[in-house]
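Quick start: what a row looks like.
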Amino acid sequence: MRILFIASSRIGDAVISSGAMERIRHDHPGARLTVACGAASAGVFARLPGLERLIIFEKQRQDRHWLSLWSRLVRDRWEVVVDFRGSALAYTLRAGRRIVVRGGRRPGRRYRQIGASCGFDPAPLPVVWTAPQDRAIAAGLLPEGAPVLGLGPTANWDGKIWPAGRFVALARALDYRRIAVFGGPGEAEAARAAPVLAALPGAIDLVGRVSVVEAAACLARCALFVGNDSGLMHLAAAAGTPTLGLFGRSRASEYAPAGRCAGFVAAPGLEGEAPMEGLSVESVIAAARELAARVGTA
Protein backbone atom coordinates (compact mmCIF):
# COMPACT_ATOMS: atom_id res chain seq x y z
CA MET A 1 0.00 0.00 0.00
CA ARG A 2 1.38 3.39 -1.00
CA ILE A 3 0.33 6.85 0.18
CA LEU A 4 1.39 10.15 -1.37
CA PHE A 5 1.48 13.45 0.51
CA ILE A 6 2.00 16.64 -1.51
CA ALA A 7 3.18 18.97 1.23
CA SER A 8 3.90 22.65 1.66
CA SER A 9 7.29 24.15 0.93
CA ARG A 10 7.05 26.31 4.06
CA ILE A 11 8.13 24.84 7.38
CA GLY A 12 5.22 26.27 9.33
CA ASP A 13 2.56 25.01 6.93
CA ALA A 14 4.30 21.64 6.73
CA VAL A 15 4.20 21.32 10.52
CA ILE A 16 0.54 22.34 10.64
CA SER A 17 -0.32 19.46 8.28
CA SER A 18 1.68 16.90 10.28
CA GLY A 19 -1.15 15.88 12.61
CA ALA A 20 -3.37 14.86 9.71
CA MET A 21 -0.47 13.01 8.11
CA GLU A 22 0.19 11.11 11.33
CA ARG A 23 -3.47 10.15 11.65
CA ILE A 24 -3.59 8.88 8.06
CA ARG A 25 -0.38 6.94 8.65
CA HIS A 26 -1.86 5.24 11.72
CA ASP A 27 -5.05 4.46 9.81
CA HIS A 28 -2.98 2.59 7.20
CA PRO A 29 -0.42 0.54 9.15
CA GLY A 30 2.53 -0.64 7.12
CA ALA A 31 1.88 1.77 4.25
CA ARG A 32 4.84 3.01 2.25
CA LEU A 33 4.84 6.80 2.28
CA THR A 34 6.03 9.31 -0.29
CA VAL A 35 6.26 13.02 0.51
CA ALA A 36 6.74 15.69 -2.15
CA CYS A 37 7.74 19.12 -0.82
CA GLY A 38 10.17 21.99 -1.17
CA ALA A 39 13.72 21.91 0.12
CA ALA A 40 12.98 24.24 3.04
CA SER A 41 10.37 21.95 4.58
CA ALA A 42 12.02 18.62 3.76
CA GLY A 43 13.51 18.36 7.24
CA VAL A 44 10.03 18.29 8.78
CA PHE A 45 9.45 14.89 7.15
CA ALA A 46 12.96 13.44 7.41
CA ARG A 47 12.03 11.11 10.31
CA LEU A 48 8.47 10.32 9.24
CA PRO A 49 7.91 6.61 10.05
CA GLY A 50 7.27 4.58 6.93
CA LEU A 51 8.86 7.16 4.64
CA GLU A 52 9.95 5.50 1.40
CA ARG A 53 10.61 8.51 -0.83
CA LEU A 54 11.15 12.20 -0.16
CA ILE A 55 10.82 14.14 -3.39
CA ILE A 56 12.11 17.71 -3.46
CA PHE A 57 10.55 19.99 -6.03
CA GLU A 58 10.87 23.75 -6.34
CA LYS A 59 8.84 26.40 -8.14
CA GLN A 60 9.66 26.85 -11.82
CA ARG A 61 8.47 29.28 -14.46
CA GLN A 62 5.03 28.74 -15.93
CA ASP A 63 4.27 26.15 -13.24
CA ARG A 64 6.60 23.64 -14.84
CA HIS A 65 7.38 22.21 -11.41
CA TRP A 66 3.97 20.53 -11.43
CA LEU A 67 4.70 18.81 -14.73
CA SER A 68 8.09 17.71 -13.43
CA LEU A 69 6.53 16.30 -10.27
CA TRP A 70 3.73 14.59 -12.22
CA SER A 71 6.30 12.79 -14.37
CA ARG A 72 7.85 11.32 -11.22
CA LEU A 73 4.54 10.11 -9.80
CA VAL A 74 2.33 9.12 -12.70
CA ARG A 75 3.66 5.56 -13.08
CA ASP A 76 2.64 4.57 -9.57
CA ARG A 77 -0.70 3.44 -8.19
CA TRP A 78 -1.58 5.15 -4.90
CA GLU A 79 -3.98 3.99 -2.21
CA VAL A 80 -4.37 7.57 -1.00
CA VAL A 81 -3.17 10.89 -2.43
CA VAL A 82 -3.32 13.87 -0.07
CA ASP A 83 -2.57 17.25 -1.61
CA PHE A 84 -2.11 19.91 1.04
CA ARG A 85 -1.33 22.50 -1.65
CA GLY A 86 -4.75 22.39 -3.27
CA SER A 87 -3.47 21.70 -6.77
CA ALA A 88 -5.09 19.64 -9.52
CA LEU A 89 -2.28 17.09 -9.48
CA ALA A 90 -4.14 14.56 -7.33
CA TYR A 91 -6.82 14.20 -10.01
CA THR A 92 -4.26 13.21 -12.66
CA LEU A 93 -2.80 10.28 -10.70
CA ARG A 94 -4.12 6.75 -10.27
CA ALA A 95 -5.48 6.69 -6.73
CA GLY A 96 -8.05 4.85 -4.65
CA ARG A 97 -8.83 7.98 -2.67
CA ARG A 98 -7.99 11.63 -3.20
CA ILE A 99 -7.95 14.39 -0.59
CA VAL A 100 -7.34 17.92 -1.86
CA VAL A 101 -6.95 20.49 0.91
CA ARG A 102 -7.74 23.99 -0.24
CA GLY A 103 -6.99 27.18 1.66
CA GLY A 104 -9.22 30.03 2.64
CA ARG A 105 -12.54 28.23 2.24
CA ARG A 106 -13.28 27.61 5.90
CA PRO A 107 -12.95 30.05 8.79
CA GLY A 108 -10.84 29.24 11.82
CA ARG A 109 -7.61 27.51 12.64
CA ARG A 110 -5.64 26.12 9.73
CA TYR A 111 -4.95 22.77 11.38
CA ARG A 112 -8.71 22.36 11.87
CA GLN A 113 -9.37 23.25 8.24
CA ILE A 114 -6.94 20.52 7.22
CA GLY A 115 -8.43 18.03 9.65
CA ALA A 116 -11.94 18.70 8.35
CA SER A 117 -10.79 18.25 4.75
CA CYS A 118 -9.36 14.88 5.72
CA GLY A 119 -12.55 13.86 7.53
CA PHE A 120 -11.21 14.13 11.08
CA ASP A 121 -13.31 15.50 13.95
CA PRO A 122 -11.73 16.65 16.14
CA ALA A 123 -8.74 17.63 14.06
CA PRO A 124 -5.48 16.05 15.22
CA LEU A 125 -2.85 18.39 16.62
CA PRO A 126 0.45 18.76 14.77
CA VAL A 127 3.32 16.44 15.72
CA VAL A 128 7.07 16.26 15.24
CA TRP A 129 9.05 13.22 14.21
CA THR A 130 12.57 12.86 15.63
CA ALA A 131 15.05 10.01 15.94
CA PRO A 132 17.31 8.95 18.84
CA GLN A 133 20.30 10.64 17.22
CA ASP A 134 18.42 13.95 17.04
CA ARG A 135 17.46 13.71 20.69
CA ALA A 136 21.06 12.84 21.61
CA ILE A 137 22.33 15.97 19.87
CA ALA A 138 19.69 18.04 21.64
CA ALA A 139 20.69 16.57 25.00
CA GLY A 140 24.27 17.61 24.33
CA LEU A 141 23.27 21.16 23.42
CA LEU A 142 20.68 21.56 26.20
CA PRO A 143 21.67 19.13 28.95
CA GLU A 144 19.59 18.48 32.04
CA GLY A 145 19.66 21.32 34.54
CA ALA A 146 17.89 24.61 35.05
CA PRO A 147 14.81 25.20 32.85
CA VAL A 148 15.52 26.65 29.43
CA LEU A 149 13.66 29.60 27.90
CA GLY A 150 13.58 29.34 24.11
CA LEU A 151 13.35 32.52 22.06
CA GLY A 152 12.47 32.80 18.37
CA PRO A 153 13.27 36.40 17.39
CA THR A 154 13.32 35.79 13.62
CA ALA A 155 10.73 35.23 10.88
CA ASN A 156 10.58 35.11 7.11
CA TRP A 157 9.64 38.78 6.75
CA ASP A 158 10.04 41.90 8.85
CA GLY A 159 6.32 42.51 9.35
CA LYS A 160 6.20 39.45 11.63
CA ILE A 161 9.17 40.42 13.79
CA TRP A 162 8.85 41.85 17.28
CA PRO A 163 11.68 44.32 17.98
CA ALA A 164 14.85 42.62 19.22
CA GLY A 165 15.13 44.89 22.25
CA ARG A 166 11.76 43.71 23.48
CA PHE A 167 12.86 40.07 23.31
CA VAL A 168 15.80 41.07 25.48
CA ALA A 169 13.55 42.87 27.97
CA LEU A 170 11.25 39.84 28.05
CA ALA A 171 14.12 37.45 28.73
CA ARG A 172 15.43 39.59 31.55
CA ALA A 173 11.99 39.92 33.12
CA LEU A 174 11.28 36.18 33.00
CA ASP A 175 14.70 35.57 34.56
CA TYR A 176 15.45 32.04 33.36
CA ARG A 177 18.95 30.90 34.17
CA ARG A 178 19.33 29.37 30.72
CA ILE A 179 18.18 30.89 27.43
CA ALA A 180 18.40 29.35 23.96
CA VAL A 181 17.97 31.51 20.86
CA PHE A 182 16.61 29.74 17.77
CA GLY A 183 16.65 30.76 14.14
CA GLY A 184 16.95 29.32 10.67
CA PRO A 185 19.97 29.13 8.39
CA GLY A 186 21.31 32.00 6.33
CA GLU A 187 22.66 35.49 6.78
CA ALA A 188 19.24 37.14 7.10
CA GLU A 189 18.23 34.95 10.04
CA ALA A 190 21.61 35.46 11.71
CA ALA A 191 21.33 39.24 11.31
CA ARG A 192 17.85 39.30 12.84
CA ALA A 193 18.94 37.25 15.84
CA ALA A 194 22.30 39.01 16.35
CA PRO A 195 21.02 41.91 18.53
CA VAL A 196 19.31 39.46 20.90
CA LEU A 197 22.40 37.28 21.21
CA ALA A 198 24.62 40.33 21.72
CA ALA A 199 22.45 41.60 24.58
CA LEU A 200 22.21 38.15 26.21
CA PRO A 201 25.84 36.98 26.19
CA GLY A 202 25.14 33.82 28.15
CA ALA A 203 22.46 32.61 25.74
CA ILE A 204 22.90 29.36 23.79
CA ASP A 205 23.17 30.24 20.12
CA LEU A 206 21.22 27.75 18.00
CA VAL A 207 20.61 30.09 15.05
CA GLY A 208 21.33 28.13 11.89
CA ARG A 209 23.35 25.59 13.88
CA VAL A 210 20.87 22.70 13.94
CA SER A 211 18.71 20.91 11.38
CA VAL A 212 14.93 21.03 11.50
CA VAL A 213 14.68 17.71 13.35
CA GLU A 214 17.47 18.68 15.75
CA ALA A 215 15.71 21.99 16.40
CA ALA A 216 12.51 20.08 17.16
CA ALA A 217 14.39 17.90 19.65
CA CYS A 218 15.97 20.98 21.25
CA LEU A 219 12.63 22.77 21.47
CA ALA A 220 11.15 19.74 23.22
CA ARG A 221 13.72 20.29 25.99
CA CYS A 222 12.69 23.92 26.60
CA ALA A 223 10.42 24.83 29.49
CA LEU A 224 8.87 27.69 27.51
CA PHE A 225 9.20 29.07 23.99
CA VAL A 226 8.28 32.62 22.96
CA GLY A 227 8.64 33.57 19.34
CA ASN A 228 7.34 35.35 16.29
CA ASP A 229 4.88 33.67 13.93
CA SER A 230 7.30 31.34 12.15
CA GLY A 231 8.08 27.74 11.37
CA LEU A 232 9.98 27.49 14.64
CA MET A 233 6.91 28.63 16.58
CA HIS A 234 4.82 25.88 14.99
CA LEU A 235 7.60 23.36 15.53
CA ALA A 236 7.82 24.25 19.24
CA ALA A 237 4.09 23.83 19.76
CA ALA A 238 4.04 20.52 17.88
CA ALA A 239 6.93 19.30 20.04
CA GLY A 240 4.74 19.77 23.10
CA THR A 241 6.67 22.75 24.48
CA PRO A 242 4.59 25.48 26.13
CA THR A 243 4.58 27.97 23.26
CA LEU A 244 3.60 31.62 23.08
CA GLY A 245 3.29 33.02 19.56
CA LEU A 246 3.58 36.75 18.85
CA PHE A 247 1.36 38.18 16.13
CA GLY A 248 0.99 41.47 14.30
CA ARG A 249 0.87 41.41 10.51
CA SER A 250 -0.27 37.79 10.35
CA ARG A 251 -3.52 36.07 11.33
CA ALA A 252 -3.58 34.48 14.76
CA SER A 253 -7.15 33.32 14.15
CA GLU A 254 -5.77 30.95 11.51
CA TYR A 255 -2.11 30.45 12.38
CA ALA A 256 -1.83 30.61 16.17
CA PRO A 257 0.39 27.79 17.47
CA ALA A 258 -1.43 24.49 17.91
CA GLY A 259 -0.19 22.19 20.64
CA ARG A 260 -0.93 20.67 24.02
CA CYS A 261 0.00 23.94 25.73
CA ALA A 262 0.06 26.88 23.35
CA GLY A 263 -1.22 30.43 23.19
CA PHE A 264 -0.66 33.72 21.48
CA VAL A 265 -0.68 37.45 22.05
CA ALA A 266 -1.44 39.86 19.22
CA ALA A 267 -0.68 43.51 18.67
CA PRO A 268 -3.75 45.71 19.11
CA GLY A 269 -5.50 46.68 15.91
CA LEU A 270 -7.00 45.03 12.85
CA GLU A 271 -5.85 41.43 12.55
CA GLY A 272 -3.16 40.99 9.94
CA GLU A 273 -2.45 44.70 9.74
CA ALA A 274 -1.34 45.68 13.24
CA PRO A 275 2.36 46.59 13.48
CA MET A 276 4.44 44.45 15.82
CA GLU A 277 5.73 47.62 17.45
CA GLY A 278 2.28 47.96 19.04
CA LEU A 279 2.80 44.76 21.02
CA SER A 280 4.05 45.82 24.43
CA VAL A 281 6.66 44.04 26.51
CA GLU A 282 4.30 44.07 29.46
CA SER A 283 1.54 42.22 27.61
CA VAL A 284 3.95 39.53 26.42
CA ILE A 285 5.48 39.12 29.88
CA ALA A 286 2.01 38.68 31.38
CA ALA A 287 0.97 36.15 28.72
CA ALA A 288 4.24 34.22 29.07
CA ARG A 289 3.92 34.00 32.83
CA GLU A 290 0.30 32.88 32.57
CA LEU A 291 1.21 30.17 30.07
CA ALA A 292 4.21 29.02 32.11
CA ALA A 293 2.13 28.90 35.28
CA ARG A 294 -0.31 26.51 33.61
CA VAL A 295 2.42 23.88 33.43
CA GLY A 296 4.36 24.85 36.54
CA THR A 297 7.40 26.20 34.72
CA ALA A 298 7.40 29.67 36.24
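That is the whole record. The mean pLDDT is 95. The longest helix spans residues 281-294.
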